[in-house]
Amino acid sequence: MTQYPNLPGIEVTIADGGLILPEDATTQSVLIIAPSLKVDAPVEPVLNRQSSDLETNGFGTFVEGGVVNPIAAAWKQAYEGGSRRIYLMALPGATDAERFAFLQEAMFGVLADFSVDHVAVVGVYADQEVTFGAAPAATEGVTTEFTATGASALVFPLTVAAGTSDTIKIGTATVTLEAKVYNTAALYLAEVNAELAGAGLETKAEIVAGKLVLSQSTTFSLVTGTNAGTLAAGAAISTIRGNFALLAGQFAESQTLNHSATLAYIGASAPAGNSLGQVKAKVDTLVAINNEYSGYVSVIAGAELGYILPGRSDYYFTNGVVTYAALVSTLRAESATTNKRVYGVAAMHYNLSLRQLNALTGNKYVTFRLKNNQVVVSDGITTAPDLVVGGAKQSSDFTRLSTLRITQTAAQLVRDLVEPFIGEPNRMPQYNALNATIKGGLEAMKAQGAIFDYRFTVVARGGTLSEAVITLELIPAFEMRKVSVNVTLRPYTA
User: Fold this and answer.
1) Which domain holds residue 472?
2) pLDDT tens digits, residue range 142-160?
3) Is 446 left (phi over 0), alpha (psi -120 to 50) or beta?
4) Does 256 share its domain with 370?
5) Nearby residues of 86 by Cβ (< 8 Å), 6 or more positions away
6) pTM here?
7) Pairing of β 237-243 and β 129-132
8) By three-state DSSP, how is residue 378 classified?
9) Alpha-carbon separation of residue 112 from 104, 159, 261, 409, 416 (angstroms)
């Protein structure tokens, strides 16, 4: 209140609250869902701008009773990784089934109305499934697998004879194994899977406890020969499973299509230890898993990264899922995570060989490697399922994370640009204005290098006077992944 309102002079006002960091709407947000050592930690998203907010908001400190608090540690990883809009949400549950049920309900319940760019799920893993005794009430993240198991164990070397004894019949398709001696289970299994793929079948073959196991997502019955695994003829047994990566991918896709662009991230479980044998065993296991879930989810498979936490004298090693999500949140859509340095990392628990990195990348895992004494991302890849075109597998358009992000950005751009036209007359002047508005937005994306070119149409939906259809085609800016250097020597000539 002015003390002397009738006198000319200078008024001084000192405002409070200027040191509080505002929520920057231009910075991409990250939601971390993770276990908390505080039993009453919030189970809805809460913005945490600084480390002191963690305890204030009920998530606890970095170390509780000498034990690392996962959700607080994850916040620090995100912050040091470059994120500044970090939301935390506790993941309750003592068992995998309880955690799956919570995530399923939360993602398609309270979080369906929450706008967030990136969701990192901590404490559960892509290679960790929940088996249901009966069909759950909700279907998100749930698959039914039909399985037929061999009656007896295979004995190697195994001789496959020519004729009817080397066939597997699934429905109307017949798979014929090459007649020869298979010295190992791996060679035999490779032949079976190759033949299944060649027949255009989505059937997966494994050897479990020495027995051949065939499984697929749809019911099937089969007839086999003796040498083809002694599989019993008839209907396969069904098993209902919940998968955390599939659940996260379905959530991110639903948010993108119905709300705003969202990406999800989840890790693979860690090796039993950091010895060469333990790391190899884990890599071999992950490579054998079907890691195709969704283009909207990335699975991070190591190496485990080390972090420095207040109140702890040694490194805290954990999966780098939050660090990777933080990195993505700082990049423009057209800038791939491939070969990008990750920040906030103090050590690596072990190194993955080039062979292991190649195998994991081939199965669509995100990995880290040491390059020039810096931890970098090996490849910015998603778990988008391959497409089957003409009986042959082809990579999805959205195997590359940058391609998906460019597509999401364009879709969100068009969504935002079209919004002001809702409620306006569905007439030609509005169509002309809509065309000009969309063209201006896409030209801006083209100018910044996110897309090479585009094409779109705006037409009225047939049979209605109140709807328009926008068809958009994009040529995205593809990331540079390889550079070939050819070196040739030549003799010296004077």
Assistant:
1) 401-476
2) 988 888 887 778 888 888 8
3) alpha
4) yes
5) 29, 30, 32, 47, 48, 49, 75, 78, 79
6) 0.80
7) antiparallel
8) coil
9) 11, 55, 12, 20, 19
